[in-house]
């Protein structure tokens, strides 16, 4: 009996061993062949080909080119006050074309919105009729909602004046800027300057890099000994705004100009640049803002 059991166990073990060996042979046959040196045929039409190494974008090269190689204009101006600063291109305000009453002409004025203003009370100020607020809005379409204007917004105010015309001369659309009397630009916060309005220089840099440059800070201007700049000389700081375009001819009529501060030159004067102290600022002073000598106002008043 024991002998039969032993023979049965041996046969079972042999059977299991044979089965296990057969399974291993099948697994080996299922493995893929080793890669050969035979050239792989190209992809047939309709199959997506993988990009070659030359077509794969070089990510490392992109990261290198993303790093700016030049110093921003503001930082460069801080270190080099005499370096020229590029001014941003001005926006354009094309005036609306409209029918002007016979014997009248449009004279454009400028107004800076103050706290508590609305087009209703501004129209009352200029026209003595608040219901004419749409006349102002039509010339300032950059304001999307006429019910929302904010302090610091620059408005063009159209006013109408009577002019004498000859009967035989056909009426033409006449729009002109408000006449700037000598010295008037120094007294007004904002005005429309004619195209030939000249500035003496501009802010070329700041002494210390800050979030906001204002009263008490030092700046560099592009004027020096060659321009006869003296200590204690004062300059008015202006900021140029939008260009005003004639509605009929499309020509440039003037530029919106805003008075934002006053500078006083220190004893640090170079050949073509000087250091100046901000003694008055209504808005932050920025690199590129224009300046004009205040002494010219006193000279004009003396001549008159």
Termini gap: 145 Å
Which CATH first-tier class would you pick?
Mainly Beta
Number of helical elements: 7
Strand order of the largest sheet: 6-7-10-9-8-11
Following the backbone from N to C, one meets helices and strands in this order, namely HHHEEHHEEHEEEEEEEH
Q: Quote the CATH topology.
A: Thrombin, subunit H
Task: Give a concise summary.
The chain is an alpha+beta fold and 304 residues long.
Description:
The radius of gyration is 39 Å and the shape is elongated. Helices cover 24% and strands 26% of the residues. It has a single domain, classed as Beta Barrel (Thrombin, subunit H). It has helices spanning 2-30, 59-66, 73-79, 119-127, 133-138, 184-187, 295-303; strands spanning 92-94, 104-112, 154-162, 175-177, 190-193, 201-206, 218-221, 234-245, 252-269, 274-281, 290-293. The strands form 2 sheets. The protein has a 6-stranded antiparallel barrel. It has a 3-stranded mixed sheet with strand order 3-2-4, with no helix packed on it. It has 304 residues and is of the alpha+beta class.
What order do the helices and strands come in, and which of them pair?
Blueprint (H helix, E strand, L loop, with lengths): L1 H29 L28 H8 L6 H7 L12 E3 L9 E9 L6 H9 L5 H6 L15 E9 L12 E3 L6 H4 L2 E4 L7 E6 L11 E4 L12 E12 L6 E18 L4 E8 L8 E4 L1 H9 L1
List keywords for this structure.
304 residues, alpha+beta, Thrombin, subunit H, six-stranded antiparallel beta barrel, three-stranded mixed β-sheet, disordered C terminus
